[in-house]
């Protein structure tokens, strides 16, 4: 591992071995919270290892102990919880939490897992170790990218800044919506890494990607809408590092990371021998794919020279006859995690929400103090400052911040005035965090 370590090699091995799937009903419980903290530590350590370029033991441990399928199941479980249980929970009359952080941890769990998968899926052996759950992961990515395209048609992602008059639950729902946007962008990267492994994917997975979901056409729509870019007056902004950032005029022709992921995925899905043998170029597919010709420029080809092969493919496609979909009788595997979880819990959503309201999301002051101490141990500031992609931002106005709360050392502010205005919201969490540090 690198010079800056959150986990020793032996500790990482123990944490990876202990990963398991939790039932929907147990999300947010004590055991679940412990695993969430462990996942965060593995997540941060994996980023540190990748940044240091000194080998990636977290990825190796996940493969060795066969835990990638466990992560995929946990990912889909929390996705289902957010869709089926969280809305019911918010509608319960007696749901008036004094502290929303325990719920935020569950909402954030999906982002933690997809971030870890994005870090480790760069390696082909990780994709192969997913085994049959790669089908479930492909379906998951397709759901996220479909929502991303739909969101761009409704005016793009939510703003980062919320109203200062909003309640804690309203603020949590806004954070969850922004988080959903970021999760979809991570899912795009994971999908691109899966397409790097076209030669080792099963026939069922290839069929799911090319025929069932028609991913090449979906990716064309993503390039057209480019939901991670927007115009703010005369300024071009891109969503990078968790925030909208203004792009300098000299950098505007530079390909963004996300645009690059789409182009590489398209290249793999259209030009790999495995895909060309199975993708049916119907009249609809041909029409969609030929839209890509408008994007080709010398600047694009300078940055991704391999796209010249894709440009030639499109030139031949423009002159080629379209194909009729084949109606072959083929026995294929289908994803089963989402369907199984939904079947097992159908009709129980309200009962699960009420159970979690009473036993999970109503912690005592002592429980919150203990949890605050564990959070402080997990999110070590010296480590986070290395991992953070950019300077911290003010908790009140979102401007770049240089001053940290002297009491809890967790929140950042750009000036004293913002800290005073934010104290009404931050005060209780600040006291708990400070008490947690004192209790160590």
From TrEMBL:
<dbReference type="GO" id="GO:0044458">
    <property type="term" value="P:motile cilium assembly"/>
</dbReference>
<dbReference type="GO" id="GO:0003341">
    <property type="term" value="P:cilium movement"/>
</dbReference>
<dbReference type="InterPro" id="IPR002893">
    <property type="entry name" value="Znf_MYND"/>
</dbReference>
<comment type="function">
    <text>Plays a role in axonemal structure organization and motility. Involved in axonemal pre-assembly of inner and outer dynein arms (IDA and ODA, respectively) for proper axoneme building for cilia motility. May act by indirectly regulating transcription of dynein proteins.</text>
</comment>
<dbReference type="InterPro" id="IPR017333">
    <property type="entry name" value="UCP037948_Znf-MYND"/>
</dbReference>
<dbReference type="Pfam" id="PF01753">
    <property type="entry name" value="zf-MYND"/>
</dbReference>
<comment type="similarity">
    <text>Belongs to the ZMYND10 family.</text>
</comment>
<feature type="domain" description="MYND-type">
    <location>
        <begin position="394"/>
        <end position="430"/>
    </location>
</feature>
<keyword id="KW-0863">Zinc-finger</keyword>
<dbReference type="InterPro" id="IPR052298">
    <property type="entry name" value="ZMYND10"/>
</dbReference>
<keyword id="KW-0963">Cytoplasm</keyword>
<dbReference type="GO" id="GO:0008270">
    <property type="term" value="F:zinc ion binding"/>
</dbReference>
<dbReference type="GO" id="GO:0061512">
    <property type="term" value="P:protein localization to cilium"/>
</dbReference>
<dbReference type="GO" id="GO:0120293">
    <property type="term" value="C:dynein axonemal particle"/>
</dbReference>
<dbReference type="GO" id="GO:0016324">
    <property type="term" value="C:apical plasma membrane"/>
</dbReference>
<dbReference type="GO" id="GO:0034451">
    <property type="term" value="C:centriolar satellite"/>
</dbReference>
<comment type="subunit">
    <text>Interacts (via C-terminus) with DNAAF11 (via CS domain); this interaction stabilizes DNAAF11 at the protein level. Interacts (via C-terminus) with DNAL1; this interaction stabilizes DNAL1 at the protein level. Interacts with DNAAF4, HSPA8, IQUB, RUVBL2 and DYNTL5.</text>
</comment>
<dbReference type="GO" id="GO:0036158">
    <property type="term" value="P:outer dynein arm assembly"/>
</dbReference>
<keyword id="KW-0479">Metal-binding</keyword>
<keyword id="KW-0472">Membrane</keyword>
<dbReference type="GO" id="GO:1905505">
    <property type="term" value="P:positive regulation of motile cilium assembly"/>
</dbReference>
<keyword id="KW-0206">Cytoskeleton</keyword>
<dbReference type="GO" id="GO:0036159">
    <property type="term" value="P:inner dynein arm assembly"/>
</dbReference>
<protein>
    <recommendedName>
        <fullName>Zinc finger MYND domain-containing protein 10</fullName>
    </recommendedName>
</protein>
<dbReference type="GO" id="GO:0044183">
    <property type="term" value="F:protein folding chaperone"/>
</dbReference>
<dbReference type="GO" id="GO:0060090">
    <property type="term" value="F:molecular adaptor activity"/>
</dbReference>
<keyword id="KW-1003">Cell membrane</keyword>
<keyword id="KW-0862">Zinc</keyword>
């Amino acid at each position: 591992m690198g010079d800056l370590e959150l986990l020793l090699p032996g500790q990482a091995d123990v944490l990876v071995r202990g990963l398991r799937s939790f039932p929907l009903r147990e999300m947010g419980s004590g055991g679940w919270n412990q695993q969430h903290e462990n996942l965060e530590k593995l997540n941060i350590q994996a980023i540190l290892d990748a940044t240091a370029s000194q080998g990636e033991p977290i990825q190796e441990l996940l493969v060795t102990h066969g835990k990638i399928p466990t992560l995929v199941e946990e990912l889909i479980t929390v996705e289902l919880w957010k869709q089926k249980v969280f809305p019911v929970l918010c509608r319960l009359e007696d749901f008036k939490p004094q502290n929303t952080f325990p719920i935020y941890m569950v909402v954030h769990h999906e982002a933690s897992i997809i971030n870890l998968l994005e870090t480790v899926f760069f390696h082909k052996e990780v994709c192969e170790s997913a085994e049959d759950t790669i089908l479930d992961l492909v379906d998951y990515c397709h759901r996220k990218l479909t929502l991303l395209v739909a969101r761009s048609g409704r005016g793009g992602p939510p703003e980062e800044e919320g109203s200062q008059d909003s309640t804690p639950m309203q603020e949590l729902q806004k954070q969850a919506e922004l988080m959903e946007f970021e999760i979809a962008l991570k899912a795009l990267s994971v999908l691109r890494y899966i397409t790097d492994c076209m030669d080792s994917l099963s026939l069922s997975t290839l069929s799911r990607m090319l025929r069932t979901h028609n991913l090449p056409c979906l990716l064309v729509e993503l390039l057209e809408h480019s939901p991670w870019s927007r115009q703010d007056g005369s300024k071009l902004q891109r969503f990078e590092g968790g925030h909208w950032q203004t792009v300098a005029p000299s950098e505007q022709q530079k390909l963004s990371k996300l645009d690059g992921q789409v182009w590489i995925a398209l290249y793999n899905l259209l030009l790999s021998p495995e895909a060309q043998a199975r993708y049916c170029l119907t009249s609809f597919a041909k029409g969609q794919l030929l839209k890509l010709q408008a994007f080709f420029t010398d600047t694009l080809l300078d940055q991704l020279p391999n796209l010249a092969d894709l440009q030639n493919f499109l030139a031949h496609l423009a002159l080629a006859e379209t194909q009729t979909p084949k109606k072959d009788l083929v026995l294929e595997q289908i994803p089963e995690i989402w369907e199984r979880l939904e079947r097992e819990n159908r009709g129980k959503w309200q009962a699960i929400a009420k159970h979690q309201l009473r036993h999970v999301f109503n912690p005592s002051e002592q429980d919150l103090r203990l949890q605050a101490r564990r959070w402080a141990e997990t999110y070590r500031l010296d480590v986070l400052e290395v991992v953070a992609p950019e300077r911290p931002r003010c908790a009140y106005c979102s401007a770049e911040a240089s001053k940290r709360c002297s009491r809890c050392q967790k929140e950042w502010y750009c000036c004293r005035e913002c800290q005073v205005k934010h104290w009404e919201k931050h005060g209780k969490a600040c006291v708990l965090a400070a008490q947690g540090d004192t209790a160590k």
